[in-house]
Amino acid sequence: MNQMRTQKVFIILFFVALWEIVAYAVNSRFVPGPFQVGRTFVQLTVSGDLAEHAVVSLARVVAGFLLAVFIALPLGIFMGWSPRMENFSVIVEMLRPIPPLAWIPLAMLWFGIGFQSKVFIIFIGAFFPILSNSFLGVRETPPYLIEAGRVLGATDNEILRRIVIPNSFPSILEGLRIGLGIAWMCLVAAELTGLKSPVGLGYLIMEARDLGKADVVMAGMIAIGVIGYIMNAVLRWTENKLVRWKGDQT
Predict the structure, then answer these.
(1) What is the pLDDT of residue 250?
(2) Roughly what angle, to the nearest 10 degrees, separates helices 165-192 and 49-81?
(3) Is 194 contained in some domain?
(4) CA 163 to chain centre
(5) Stretch 84-109: mean pLDDT, rounded?
(6) What is the DSSP letter of 87?
(7) Which of 42-56, 95-109, 142-156, 222-236 has the lowest mean pLDDT?
(8) Is a pLDDT exceeding 70 seen at residue 95?
(9) What share of the chain is helix, strand, coil (3-state, %, to 5)?
């Protein structure tokens, strides 16, 4: 464990040093160094500007992501469990290849350029990985577990609740992590393109770009990375707890 931490610290220091070398070799106006970006990040944090933009973006991501979870998760489970529900897979496979950003024109027509349109784009981005992984998690449940439940007299609903869904947790949580990452990409892309608003990390980055402030652009990017890393770490922690619980039950 200590060796792994040492390696991670070394990699971070190596990256910072390489970044500083590149910034020194190139015009710092276009590639500011890590210390300059760090100072800007601290200044934006102290002034409250970064928090204002981050909170708004986080609210949009959470709203769209939770909406995707509440719809895609049960739909994926029932599509994997019920042969009749599997018929919906034809529609899903037709819609899944469409990039989330291709929905922006419709989002603007349906919801305008406010909060709802951004949430819709985030929902679209997170929906399909959550749905697909939930479906696969159910389908990959070992048949012998299901047969064992039936031999013991369990009903189909009991098998679904006590065997299939717990066995699907790793795949489901993997889908949640993938969906969360795509949700952040969709949010920033929506804020950078047709769904602009005067607040949000995407807006902060675009405004800084227009003003030629590369350090602010990178500070905004770092903020997105940090928030995404924390949310992903929470899901990983949850996954480890659930997988350990599952292992204790087998």
Answers:
(1) 46
(2) 140
(3) yes
(4) 27
(5) 83
(6) G
(7) 142-156
(8) yes
(9) 85, 0, 15
The enclosing domain of 197 has a CATH number of 1.10.3720.10
Residue 139 CA to chain centroid, in angstroms?
24
Q: Measured in whole angstroms, how far is the alpha carbon of residue 188 from the centre of its chain?
A: 12
Evaluate whether 199 touches 52 at the Cβ level (below 8 Å).
yes
Domain count, the chain: 1
What would the two tokens of residue 36 be? 């300059």
Over residues 207-211, the mean pLDDT reads 86
pLDDT band, residue 67 (cuts 50/70/90):
very high
Domain of residue 113 covers 51-249
Output the CA–CA distances (angstroms, integers) from residue 225 to 19, 101, 161, 188, in the order listed.
Answer: 17, 20, 36, 12
CA distance 50 to 47: 8
Q: How far apart are CA 126 and CA 121, in angstroms?
A: 9
| The pLDDT value given to residue 244 | 61
